């Protein structure tokens, strides 16, 4: 007799996400809530949250103040959700911050701030959530990297568009995210805590999409010959939160329309 298939639904799951009201964050939150999850968006601006989710079901999507630069703020946010829900099933580390993008003009301060914003913030988040998941005897940590954590930019794509160039500290930090994911997946696996990573490709913001020439260049780099849409990123997160991914850990899922297979 075969076992019952594991569900991809996130019904009854409690999920935390940083960067949840950003361009990709909205797509992630919408997909999780559509499949039944209760989602807590951790951020600094409740006004931005309300603007982004004004048409949403606030019985399922909530705001909690959190400044990812501050480890104590992350701890307080987690404690706040735990007090209310009595459980947390997953955390998605999506937010980041960088300063500067000219490879030859970056100063030490910009480099250090950006490594903090792309890598150190995830360490602080993992450090804060592990005791919770340890008590629950399981949980899902999902980190967000980038295709530029795997490959270098094609600088021809950015020719004449230096303001849009992906800077070196961003790629270096995102490469670190992939390794950090593997490390903690190995370290925490015996306790039933899963750690995985998502590496998005070209998902330019709506503002960037106004530059039609740049978008054409991006489209030519992908196997699908188009850019990604925010609603196309959420499904992989829902899968990794759901029980259907219970035997998946330490993996980096590349969602890039085939960009990196051509590099």
Automatic annotation (TrEMBL):
Q: Name one Pfam family in it.
A: adh_short_C2
**Coiled coil ranges:** none
Q: Matching InterPro entries, A to Z?
A: NAD(P)-bd_dom_sf, SDR_fam
| Family statement drawn from the similarity comment of this UniProt entry | Belongs to the short-chain dehydrogenases/reductases (SDR) family.
Report what the protein is called: SDR family oxidoreductase
């Amino acid at each position: 007799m075969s076992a019952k298939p594991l569900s991809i639904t996130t019904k009854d799951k409690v999920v935390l996400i940083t960067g949840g009201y950003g361009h990709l964050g909205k797509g992630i939150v919408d997909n999780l809530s559509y499949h039944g999850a209760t989602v807590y968006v951790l951020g600094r601006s409740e006004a931005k949250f309300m603007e982004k989710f004004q048409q949403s079901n606030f019985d399922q999507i909530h705001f909690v103040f959190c400044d990812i630069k501050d480890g104590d703020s992350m701890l307080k946010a987690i404690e706040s959700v735990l007090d209310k829900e009595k459980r947390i099933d997953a955390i998605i580390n999506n937010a980041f911050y960088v300063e500067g993008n000219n490879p030859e003009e970056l100063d030490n301060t910009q480099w250090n701030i950006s490594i903090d914003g792309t890598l150190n913030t995830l360490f602080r988040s993992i450090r804060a959530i592990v005791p919770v998941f340890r008590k629950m005897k399981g949980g899902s940590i999902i980190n967000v990297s980038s295709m530029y954590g795997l490959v270098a930019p094609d600088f021809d794509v950015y020719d004449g568009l230096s303001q849009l160039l992906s800077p070196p500290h961003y790629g270096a930090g995102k490469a670190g995210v992939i390794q950090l994911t593997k490390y903690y997946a190995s370290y925490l696996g015996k306790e039933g805590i899963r750690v995985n990573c998502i590496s998005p490709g070209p998902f330019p913001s709506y503002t960037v999409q106004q530059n039609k020439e740049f978008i054409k260049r991006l489209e030519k780099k992908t196997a699908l010959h188009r850019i990604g849409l925010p609603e196309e990123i959420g499904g992989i997160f829902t899968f990794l939160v759901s029980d259907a991914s219970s035997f998946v850990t330490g993996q980096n899922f590349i969602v890039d329309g085939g960009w990196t297979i051509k590099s």
